Amino acid sequence: MRSLAAWLARYDHSLIHLVNCQWKCRFFDWLMPRVTHLGGATATLSFLIGWVILMPKMIKMWAVEGFVALVSSHLAVHFLKMFLPRIRPYLKIKHLHTFPNPLTDYSFPSGHTTAAFSIAVTYILHAPALIFIFLPYAVTVGFSRMYLALHYPTDVLMGTCLGSGFAVGTVYLFELL
To answer: What residue ranges are annotated as transmembrane (predicted)?
Structure first.
């Protein structure tokens, strides 16, 4: 078990270094602080509310399912952050580049990535052609969290799993109702 933990720590450190230091460029420095907010509460809730207001009745329910997946997955995120506290990478690894107003709470799992995947997978399950819009959105939000040194790759991976899992479970549950 210790060797697995040591391997994961090395993997996390080497991949965060690659994304945050080796891929650092002016374009990403400009783009990633903007993209990352697309996984935040304001953007995700605004999208869902806009969907309910603007879309035809037969597909409004997707937003309700997205909201249920979003809220339920964030309860899991909150629980995990409380019981598995992990210091954010930029606070632990000195040479990482961070950006204005970095977060100081715990990093595991990535809530922004969880939110992005909970909504993306919900919509993809209803309309598979939307994968070309929603999957790049969710992956880019997860990438931005690492680029900004706010999350380790395993934080993002767990957020991906949580968001996707809660989306699948929610869509399935609504089909049963």
So the answer is: 37-54, 61-80, 115-135, 156-174
With 0-12 / 13-18 / 19 or more C-beta atoms within 10 angstroms meaning exposed / middle / buried, residue 132 is: exposed
Fold of domain 26-176? Vanadium-containing Chloroperoxidase; domain 1 (1.20.144)
Residue 109, preceding peptide bond in cis (omega within 30° of 0): yes
Measured distance CA(24)–CA(90) in Å, rounded: 15
Q: Are 82 and 108 in contact (CB under 8 A)?
A: no
166 and 118 in contact (C-beta within 8 Å)?
yes
C-alpha 177/C-alpha 163 separation (Å) is: 21
Give the start-to-end residue ranges of the domains of the chain.
26-176
Rg over alpha carbons for the chain, rounded to the nearest Å, is: 17
Of 122, 121, 113, 118, the closest CA to residue 159 belongs to 113
Give the total residue count for the chain. Answer: 177
C-alpha 172/C-alpha 28 separation (Å) is 37
What is the spatial distance between Cα 10 and Cα 17, in angstroms, rounded to a whole number?
A: 11
